[in-house]
Write a structure and sequence with these properties.
Elements (H helix, E strand, L loop, with lengths): L12 H8 L3 H9 L1 H16 L4 H8 L3 H10 L9 H10 L15 H7 L1
């Protein structure tokens, strides 16, 4: 019996997103969740910059690793949005300050289509 070696299939996330965004329904749904995606990406970038695992962050926050996993995945969920206090603790654990900014809204393609 020969063993086949695992050969991962390359997946270009940016190219796939660009292709999918050409679909108006996908683009509208993606735009509606853009802030959640940005929050998740920021949490992951901060943890990776700090060179930490979820277990490391959990230890510093005094919570279970599963709770950090849930926190990182819930950033994209409107059901279980983390509180500001939790985000502050996460930021402190990865050596960051939590900063929240409000920026003028961008006019989305979806909004332009609805007005037309």
């Amino acid at each position: 019996m020969t063993r086949e070696r695992y050969q991962p299939v390359p997946f270009d996330v940016a190219a796939t997103r660009k292709r999918w965004l050409k679909d108006a329904a996908f683009a509208d749904a993606f735009a509606a969740l853009e802030d959640e995606f940005a929050t998740l990406a920021e949490l992951l970038r901060a943890r990776q910059r700090a060179g930490m695992t979820q277990a490391d962050v959990a230890d510093r926050m005094g919570i279970a690793q599963a709770s950090v996993a849930r926190l990182e995945s819930s950033a994209g969920s409107r059901k279980h949005a983390p509180s500001l206090a939790t985000l502050r603790r996460y930021a402190a654990a990865v050596g960051c300050d939590l900063r929240i900014t409000l920026a003028p809204a961008k006019k989305s393609k979806a909004a332009a289509r609805k007005r037309a």
